[in-house]
């Protein structure tokens, strides 16, 4: 969840300051772990801070704590959010509470963004033509479906593209993903709509999307 990275370690840095910096990194590490935060310290001096920033960002660590000699002297630290790149400076005594709150905030922010993206790309399609259009636009569609495997196989064939999206990456047809608990459009029990694949009475609005 958190990586602590030592910064500002140069050949001109006094040995006492170097030792104090590494000890402070270990102190932050201990405090965070004691609070239940999964953390580790990267104090390797054979890699530049920039290399270590990139290394841990590629690994997906959501929060980076930067500590340098000046931060140690000022009893401060810099926290960097991976999702936005925002840098936040806080006092040392705030570290545990602030970072735990920051992790919760990042989780909520990522969930909200993912939920918004999903719902903005989800539509209702009541015909094969509407399903094909939605799929070709990179969306997922809730369609009336009979829930039969043979029909789904036919839908896959019809919605498969003839051409590759990218060289060497063929685009597959649409397949069923799930039956939503709260579909965008309710099924009318008195007059069930026809399945988009076979025109038999549909049993549920089912989410379809394309696999790549």
TrEMBL record:
Domain of life: Eukaryota
Gene Ontology molecular function terms on file: ATP binding; proline-tRNA ligase activity
GO biological process, one term: prolyl-tRNA aminoacylation
Pfam family, one: HGTP_anticodon
Residues in Proline-tRNA ligase class II C-terminal domain copies: 128-212
UniProt xrefs under InterPro entries: Anticodon-bd, Anticodon-bd_dom_sf, Pro-tRNA-ligase_IIa_arc-type, Pro-tRNA_ligase_II_C, Pro-tRNA_synth_II
CDD domains in alphabetical order: ProRS_anticodon_zinc
Enzyme class: ligase
This protein's UniProt keywords: Aminoacyl-tRNA synthetase, ATP-binding, Ligase, Nucleotide-binding, Protein biosynthesis
Gene Ontology, cellular component aspect: aminoacyl-tRNA synthetase multienzyme complex; cytoplasm
EC code: 6.1.1.15
Protein known as: proline--tRNA ligase
Organism, scientific name: Petromyzon marinus (Sea lamprey)
Top-level taxonomy: Eukaryota, Metazoa, Chordata, Craniata, Vertebrata
């Amino acid at each position: 969840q958190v990586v602590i990275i030592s910064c500002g370690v140069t050949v001109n840095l006094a040995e006492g300051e170097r030792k104090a910096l590494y000890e402070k990194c270990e102190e932050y590490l201990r405090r965070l772990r004691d609070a239940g935060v999964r953390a580790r310290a990267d104090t390797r001096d054979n890699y530049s801070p920039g290399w270590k920033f990139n290394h841990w960002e590629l690994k997906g660590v959501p929060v980076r704590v930067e500590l340098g000699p000046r931060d140690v002297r000022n009893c401060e630290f810099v926290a960097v959010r991976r999702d936005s790149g925002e840098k936040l400076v806080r006092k040392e005594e705030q570290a545990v509470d602030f970072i735990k709150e920051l992790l919760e905030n990042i989780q909520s922010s990522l969930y909200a963004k993912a939920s918004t993206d999903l719902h903005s790309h989800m539509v209702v399609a009541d015909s094969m033509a509407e399903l094909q259009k939605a799929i070709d636009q990179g969306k997922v569609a809730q369609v009336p479906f009979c829930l039969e495997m043979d029909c789904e196989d036919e839908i896959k064939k019809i919605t498969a593209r003839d051409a590759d999206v990218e060289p060497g990456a063929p685009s597959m047809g649409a397949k069923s993903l799930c039956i939503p608990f709260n579909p965008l459009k309710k099924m009318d029990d008195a007059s069930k709509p026809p399945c988009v694949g076979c025109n038999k009475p549909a049993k549920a609005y089912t989410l379809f999307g394309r696999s790549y």
